[in-house]
Structures are given as C-alpha cells and as structure tokens.
Write a structure and sequence with these properties.
The protein is mainly β. 0% of the residues lie in helices and 52% in strands. The strands form two sheets. Strands 2, 4, 5, 6, 9, 10 and 11 form a seven-stranded mixed beta sheet that branches. The protein has a four-stranded antiparallel beta sheet with strand order 1-3-8-7, with no helix packed on it. A hairpin with a 4-residue loop joins strand 7 (68-73) and strand 8.
Amino acid sequence: EVQLVESGGGLVQAGGSLRLSCAVSGISLDDHAIGWFRQAPGKVREGISCFSSYDGAIWYDDSVKGRFTISSDSAKNMVYLEMKPLKLEDTAVYYCAAVIATTTKKFEQEYDYWGQGTQVTVSS
C-alpha cells in the first residue's frame, strides 16, 4: 500500500518558518517524484515544488522560489519542505504527492498518490 502522510503544519506569524514533512511508504523515492501542492480557501490546488531523486532535479513555483526549500532523506523515505519566511498568502492546506518518474512533475494531474494534507495558517 502506498501511503503519504504530511505533518508539520500549524499556525505561524508572517515572517516565521515551518518545516513540513512527508512520510512516504510503499514506494521508493529512488524512482518517484515527490511534489508539494497547496490549496488556499476558495482556490484550486497548485503545485509549488517537486523533487526527483532519480535525476536530482528540483522545481519551485515562482511564488515560493527563494523562500521554500525541498529536501529528502532517502534512508527514511521522507521529503521535507522548509518554508521561510512565510507570508500571509502562504495560508493553505499543503499536500505531498508521488508518481513514478525520472524527473520532476509539476501538475497535479500527473500524480497518482496523495497525502491527506496539513494546514498552514500564517497570521499577521
């Protein structure tokens, strides 16, 4: 069974930081791309970052580039998203997703497996 579980969300003030974790089981990070997505209230889900360990490729959406950092620990089957500094517009439910791939994937339609999401709320 493939399972992705996000954690690390919470309430933080603008300018603060959070590190989200995605625990992956049932698949290997060696041949899957792991993407981070977010969905703000009333908006569609959007991709913000992706990591492919197979080729070492990393992608960030412009909205988070320079602020968010994706990383992985293959031995632990974990993928992380460090977020700093957070902005009010970062408030959303954050999801990790996985798909068999040899490079990064940027669109939710490309992903097969999804976590349950973790809430990030940024306050002023």
